[in-house]
Every structure is written in structure tokens, then in C-alpha cells.
Design goal:
about 0% strand, membrane, Putative amino acid transporter, AA/rel_permease1, cell membrane, transmembrane transporter activity
């Protein structure tokens, strides 16, 4: 162990965020961002239909291993530095400040895009559910605005309040899926766990393993947000790594078991055909068949609350990227101000809320369909943006440890494996962008170039800051200078 280096941190007008988050609370926020029941009902049937089919459970195992490999380097970095900047901070230390500025801008756009999928999804599915259940006709935009305002209020207040709300919402959605799983196992017995789907021949030859892995890895979106809460924990160098490993493991096991039991319920030979026909109603139909219509109704409502929980978690993640960009002068400084009483990025939260409200207004004014236009486009844009951040973070983590000369062979090997895997995922997403979004449109298919343009602007802006505003440039990722040598 080498002595800790004392380095000077430039003062900012913002201060640090405050909170008493623990490992379980951060884990809940991370898992909630992944929207488990939304994945169960939405992504897994898609993987059954056009992905890896009956071998989807195996795809989740592989995806979990890949992300655990990524988590090795991620955890090693979080033990050395902590900040609300997350990947932005890591990329600054590993790849340099201009790439970090690019990462900051991409993160803000990507997380806002993923949040908007929840905003539009809540409006769309909420209006459909209220109509089918109670016969109420409610415009989707009304429900979306209510959700945005509620989440904005919770994001403005103490982070612990949001964490408690997420504990309740996440527990409800997980409980409903577990009840369904138990009902299927109770009726099917050992047949609910077909072992044949794990044979190497079936894993490779059933459906498209590449698309299956893409869908599986996309189901974990949000797991990387643990580092964003480093300033709001008592001991971030222990809490963040633990929360990361715990969340990846919990998500992997949950998706693996639920998809495996679903395959057993439908039958390995029939999964692809049934899911192709039923898609998003697949799991609800399983509930009707193996549990009860009452559970199905509750599942439908928890699907809605799952989107709300995900929106709250993503709101908190996104406004922390906004907050840090403001605190360090990449955006107007007033955005990076901490609330004096709540210790939260309150102004960044207000900006995030305003962006969501404007998006709803624009969608309504433009006659856009909340699902076919907003959800599809924002899903593709946000997902690709987050995966690109993960890829850049892998490169940065490897570069950081190599440059420091640390002999962390296992960490570097795991990070390299994660980098290769995430590179392949980026290729899969870009190649199958219309499959991911569910539509084929020249405008939507061009969205990946939006991220390229944003990253390019970020790099140019970072270079411009170095020349024209050296004090701001010197302050980029300054919290990273408070690092510990292990």
C-alpha cells in the first residue's frame, strides 16, 4: 500500500450531496431502474420470439457473467474514488478530460431518453389499463404529466424518501412475479425446470444467440448507476462495490429463474411460436392459466408501477449527471447547486422534470403516438447511449490501472473481457437497431448518429475549455483527485 496523495480540489459553489444511503437502498434503486416486471413482460417474450427462444435463460446467465466481469473493474475504481459523476469521473481519469466531457453529454442524453420511455410508457399503458379495467377514458398525456410531477417532487426531496418509495414499489412487483412463478411450479412440478434447454447444442442452435444476448444485456440497463450515489453514502468505497455486485446478481437470478419457469410452463418446443403470437401478453396469459385473473390484474397494475419506479430511479441517475456537469462548469453553474436543507441536486431535478414535461407537450402537439413514436425511439437512443458509456468506462478503467502500473491481473483480465463483450453488444445493437426499436424508419434508424454527434461536440467543447477557460477545464472531475491508492 502506498501513502495517500494529498491533492488540491478546486472549490465549487455547489458543495457535496448528502444522504445516508446504505448498500440495500442503493441496490433497490439500481434494480428498480432495470424495471424487472417490465422486462419480464416486455423483453423476455421478445427474446423468446426472435432472440434465443427456449434458451433465453442461458442467455441471462451469460449476460450476468459478462456484467459481473465488468463489475470487477467498476468496483475497483469505486474503491478509489467516489462522486455523483459516475462514469464521467472514471472516464476522465482513464481516457482524459475531453472524452469525459463527451461522456457527460452522452450520459445526460441517454438517461433522459430512457426516462422518457418510462414517461410515455406510463401514459400509454396506464390509459389502456384504466380503459380495459374500469372503462375510464384518460388521455395518456395526463397520466404522464402526473407521473413526471410526482417523480419530480420525490427527486427534489431527500434521496432517502425516494429510496423508501422504491423499496415498496420494487417489493410489490417482485412479489407478484414470484407468486406467478410459484403457481407454475406448484402445478408443473419438475417439468417447470426443463434441463434440455441448457445443452450446448440447444444454446447455440436455438433461435439467435446473438439477439438473445442483446435482449438479456439490455435487461440490466441501469445497473451501472450505483456509483452515482457515492457522495450520499457513509462509506462509498465499500457500499458502491457491494451494491453493484448484489444488484447484478439479484437481477441475473430473478430473470434467469422467471424465464426458465416460463419456458417450462409453455414447453420448450412451443415457446417461440407462442411468444411470437402473444408477445407482451405472454406472462399475463400464463397468470390466467396457472394462477388467477385477479393476479393478472394486479400484475398489469404492477407493470405500471414498475415503470413509475424505473422512472424515479432513472430521474435520480440523470439529474446527478446534470448536477455534476453544472457543478464543474460544463453547464450553467446554478444547475450544480445542492439544496441547503435536503442535500439533493434539487435544481438539476427541476431541469430534469421540465425536460420531461416539455417532451410530453411536444409529443402531444406533434400528434406523436406515445408507444409507436416516443417509446420506440427513446428506447433505441437511450439503450445504445448507456451501453456506449459502459464500453467507454471499460476502456477507461483498463487504461487507468495500466497507467498507474498496478499489477491487478485479474481486474485487467475481467475488464478486457467485458470490453470485448460490450463491443460486440454495440455492434449487435447498431446492426439490429430496427429490431430493438420495433420499427423501421429512416429517422429512427439514424438515431445512433445523434449519439456520435453529441460525443463529438463534447470532445470539441472539452478542447475548447482547455484553451479558452482553463480554470473550468482544470476543475473537470476534480473529485476524482481525492482518490485512494490501494
Amino acid at each position: 500500500m502506498t501513502p495517500t496523495k494529498a491533492k488540491t480540489t478546486l472549490p465549487t459553489p455547489a458543495g457535496d450531496l448528502r444522504g445516508t444511503l446504505t448498500t440495500p437502498k442503493i441496490t433497490v434503486m439500481v434494480v428498480a431502474a432495470a424495471a424487472p416486471i417490465s422486462c419480464i413482460a416486455g423483453i423476455i417474450p421478445l427474446s423468446f420470439a426472435i432472440g434465443s427462444g427456449a434458451s433465453t435463460p442461458a442467455a441471462f446467465v451469460i449476460a450476468g457473467v459478462v456484467l459481473l466481469l465488468f463489475s470487477v473493474g467498476y468496483a475497483a475504481m469505486s474503491r478509489r474514488m467516489s462522486s455523483a459523476g459516475g462514469f464521467y469521473q472514471y472516464i476522465a481519469r482513464g481516457l482524459g478530460k475531453p472524452p469525459a466531457v463527451a461522456a457527460s453529454f452522452v450520459a445526460i442524453v441517454a438517461y433522459n431518453a430512457v426516462a422518457l420511455t418510462c414517461v410515455a410508457g406510463i401514459g400509454y399503458f396506464g390509459s389502456v389499463l384504466l380503459d380495459s379495467t374500469f372503462g375510464w377514458t384518460v388521455n395518456w398525456a395526463v397520466l404522464s404529466v402526473v407521473a413526471v410531477v410526482l417523480v419530480g417532487f420525490l427527486g427534489y426531496r431527500e434521496i432517502d424518501i425516494a429510496a423508501r418509495v422504491l423499496v415498496f414499489l420494487l417489493a410489490a412487483e417482485v412479489a407478484m412475479v414470484v407468486i406467478l412463478d410459484v403457481a407454475i411450479v406448484f402445478e408443473k412440478g419438475a417439468d417447470a425446470f426443463p434441463l434440455s434447454i441448457f445443452s450446448p447444442a440447444n444454446v447455440v442452435n436455438t433461435g439467435s444467440l446473438g439477439l438473445g444476448l442483446m435482449f438479456a444485456l439490455l435487461s440490466f440497463i441501469g445497473f451501472e448507476s450505483a456509483a452515482l450515489y457515492g457522495e450520499e453514502t457513509r462509506d462509498p468505497r465499500k457500499t458502491v462495490p457491494r451494491a453493484t455486485y448484489l444488484s447484478v446478481t439479484a437481477i441475473s437470478v430473478f430473470y434467469f429463474l422467471s424465464s426458465w419457469i416460463a419456458v417450462g410452463a409453455i414447453g420448450p418446443d412451443h415457446v417461440q411460436a407462442v411468444a411470437s403470437e402473444q408477445l407482451v401478453t405472454t406472462f399475463f396469459n400464463l397468470s390466467d392459466a396457472y394462477a388467477s385473473s385477479m393476479l393478472t390484474t394486479v400484475l398489469e397494475f404492477t407493470y405500471l408501477t414498475s415503470l413509475l419506479a424505473s422512472l424515479l430511479a432513472l430521474h435520480n441517475a440523470s439529474n446527478r449527471y446534470l448536477f455534476v456537469a453544472g457543478r464543474e462548469g460544463l453547464l450553467p453553474r446554478w444547475i450544480g447547486t445542492v439544496h441547503p436543507a435536503h442535500g439533493t441536486p434539487s435544481r438539476a431535478s427541476l431541469v430534469q422534470t421540465t425536460v420531461n414535461l416539455i417532451a410530453v407537450i411536444v409529443a402531444v402537439s406533434g400528434g406523436l403516438d406515445p408507444y409507436l413514436d416516443v417509446v420506440t425511439a427513446m428506447t433505441g437512443l437511450g439503450t445504445l447511449g448507456v451501453v456506449l458509456l459502459q464500453l467507454a468506462a471499460s476502456a477507461a478503467i483498463g487504461a487507468y490501472f495500466v497507467r498507474r502500473g498496478e499489477r491487478l491481473v485479474g481486474t485487467l483480465a475481467a475488464t478486457a473481457a467485458a470490453f470485448v463483450s460490450l463491443s460486440l453488444l454495440v455492434v449487435l445493437i447498431v446492426k439490429n437497431f430496427d429490431t430493438l426499436t420495433g420499427v423501421s424508419s429512416p429517422l429512427i434508424d439514424a438515431l445512433p448518429w445523434v449519439l456520435v454527434g453529441i460525443a463529438f461536440i463534447g470532445v470539441i467543447y472539452g478542447v475548447w475549455l482547455e484553451v479558452n477557460r482553463p480554470q473550468v477545464y482544470a476543475g473537470i472531475a476534480t473529485d476524482a483527485d481525492n482518490e485512494e491508492d490501494q
